[in-house]
Amino acid sequence: MSEGGPSRTAHHGNRHGRSERARQAVLEAADDLLVERGFAGVTIEGIAARAGVAKQTIYRWWSSKVDVLIEAFVDDMAQYLTPPDEGDLEHRLRTHLSRSARFLTRTAPGAVFRALAGQAQHDPEVAARFRAECLGPLRALDRLPLERAVERGELPPDTDLDFAVDQLVGPLYYRVLVTGHPVPEEFTDALVERFLALTRLPIQ
Amino acid sequence: MSEGGPSRTAHHGNRHGRSERARQAVLEAADDLLVERGFAGVTIEGIAARAGVAKQTIYRWWSSKVDVLIEAFVDDMAQYLTPPDEGDLEHRLRTHLSRSARFLTRTAPGAVFRALAGQAQHDPEVAARFRAECLGPLRALDRLPLERAVERGELPPDTDLDFAVDQLVGPLYYRVLVTGHPVPEEFTDALVERFLALTRLPIQ
Amino acid sequence: MSEGGPSRTAHHGNRHGRSERARQAVLEAADDLLVERGFAGVTIEGIAARAGVAKQTIYRWWSSKVDVLIEAFVDDMAQYLTPPDEGDLEHRLRTHLSRSARFLTRTAPGAVFRALAGQAQHDPEVAARFRAECLGPLRALDRLPLERAVERGELPPDTDLDFAVDQLVGPLYYRVLVTGHPVPEEFTDALVERFLALTRLPIQ
Amino acid sequence: MSEGGPSRTAHHGNRHGRSERARQAVLEAADDLLVERGFAGVTIEGIAARAGVAKQTIYRWWSSKVDVLIEAFVDDMAQYLTPPDEGDLEHRLRTHLSRSARFLTRTAPGAVFRALAGQAQHDPEVAARFRAECLGPLRALDRLPLERAVERGELPPDTDLDFAVDQLVGPLYYRVLVTGHPVPEEFTDALVERFLALTRLPIQ
DNA sequence: TCTTAAGCGAGACGGTACGTCCGGTCTTGAA
DNA sequence: TTCAAGACCGGACGTACCGTCTCGCTTAAGA
């Protein structure tokens, strides 16, 4: 992509493989349109026009606008969310949850995520892809601090990590996607506090 | 259709007031289409055709298909969810949560709710109406057992009920709307158990 | 439909019958585009844009651009070609043939006719409609002077009129559509002269 | 072509000169598509696919599908039409006209001719090439018997041959391209009879 | 003998127009 | 005044071809 590349100059058509330039332009155009005009404002024709790309080029590589948005999300997600690995468990969880809240409510990929989560309610196929390709990686990041905590003896070895994740992030997503309430740090901190309080109880 | 009676056919028009028949037919048609074909399969033209109603009649009384679905949801919701008032707090909460899970995942109004929650991600106006008219009543039902528990001394009087509701139902909605995991009774029971365990802690 | 009309002002939609305004605008736009840009320059989208009409309105009433052009031709044809009924047979035939040549080569409906004749070579359905709706009336006009001549005794009563028409106008159409040669009055006059010379022969 | 040859696969490329194999395949594919699916069914992509040839190879040597069809017609025409040179003028003309009618209505190159004549109505450039390369040779063949007749004294030396050709074949083309009527031998014979009858008149 | 440049297959690209679906507005005539 | 009916303008859909381009292979003339 950088050094040498197949060709420095823009080109149309290429026997081996697609145009990276077109791919990037499409993903960015979709992202931009979503942020600027909302999900209904994202249309294949609009993406094509803004990306300076032919509609057929989009249909050649993606099956729908949702497909484009999923790829855009996956491309962008990584750079936003890596759970911290410093300090004690409480600090790490607090940081991760508050970063997650910020990611979901304030960033462009967060907006894409919310749109895809919305569309997943309307279409089982979208739901499946959304869960596999968008939610999966996110959830893996959510598990990471807990897995490390188990390894380090900060949590009992028989902890049900899936249930723990549901307890920790469930209320967060509920606020973001359902009630629309803001998610201040006090809220995420309180979630962490309650969660950790339970781990110190003799019961379970 | 031609000869005879004042009219064999349903009446067209009514000088005074709207046609209740048309209203019901529209709401049912919208409901049915949602369940049969999903949100994208619900169109104003489709509703009109199935309800035997003119498009204009729909636009006269509703502003969009979402508006129709909200009204359909409000009409149906009541009969499904009334939190129980028997037994102790744990039992009441368990029953309510498991009923809520069933409502969201297995009933027609639950499907409407999920579709509206999805559309709320795409459109702030929908989000506002959805929260006010659909989520509000549900959330009031979620608070009810906790409010009663405070009155009866089963919970401390300074309990933050909104936060409590978020903790209790957040993971449930998260599963239903985000991860798509099933929501068995073990899950809702565990949520209640953790929640009540915390109320017995000296902290808070 | 003419005086007073259902409404002086433009309107959208009408329970009973279509918009005459839209119909006229479409036919004129098609005519204009054909003359200005040729047959390939006539597109449904182009007609719609120039007529200020939605594509669907065109598809509702016509099945293709050829369908539009046929109707445009039929609408316009009448005012151009009425064979004269003054003078003797030779004069009437000369006038009619030279008018026909002018019609085909110099007028807008003539251009439409040539385009449709061309398209008829590509599509049997177009050919059938073209012959029934465009050529038929024209050919009836071609027969008229000969029929009158038979009635008046200027031609023998057993004359094969169809063959006579082929002989008279065949070379004309051949020049216009095939060789592209000009069709001056000398040419049409000579055709008439030869044709009449034969009627004076004892043979037949 | 499969086993043994210097190469199993068809050759790709040739430093000097084009591939005759590709040329033939393209012309045949175009011919076949025209006969099977009509003019609209002939597309550059379709020709390329059926001929097993790259689109670019077509564009390298031809400028359009019409260009391909013209070359296909020229390649095929010769073998069909050579006016006979036996018997008296009447017999030779009768034979030539009835063969011409058969050629135009019943043979593959005849179908190509009709399609090109159609397209010539839509595009002046096509018209020019069509007249020069397709019609010219045919018309030369039409003149040939008349020229010979003049040489042999069967026709007066001052006969206007172009006009004679128009008279003889005009009605034939008119039937084929315009009215779509069948062209039986009686028709062509009658044309010849009338034409010759005039040459025996004192007038002209 | 070894280059090397032209012809070739494949196919991605930016476009244009297609014919369809639906949205939301408007008008009509009957009830 | 509301209703069923349905024509209207508008805009996006997904498809088919257009004509251009790049690519890597094949091949034969000439260095």
TrEMBL record, chains A, B, C, D:
GO terms for molecular function: DNA-binding transcription factor activity; transcription cis-regulatory region binding. SUPFAM superfamilies: Homeodomain-like, Tetracyclin repressor-like, C-terminal domain. The keyword Transcription applies. The keyword Disulfide bond does not apply. Gene3D superfamilies: Homeodomain-like, Tetracycline Repressor, domain 2. PROSITE patterns: HTH_TETR_2. Residues 43-62 bind DNA. Residues 1-20 are annotated as: Disordered. Pfam families: TetR_C_11, TetR_N. Residues 20-80 form the HTH tetR-type domain. Keywords: DNA-binding, Transcription, Transcription regulation. Signal peptide: none annotated. InterPro entries: Homeodomain-like_sf (IPR009057), HTH-type_TetR-like_transc_reg (IPR050109), HTH_TetR (IPR001647), Tet_transcr_reg_TetR-rel_C_sf (IPR036271), TetR_C (IPR011075). PANTHER family: HTH-TYPE TRANSCRIPTIONAL REGULATOR RUTR, TETR-FAMILY TRANSCRIPTIONAL REGULATOR. This is Transcriptional regulator, TetR family protein. It comes from Actinoallomurus iriomotensis.
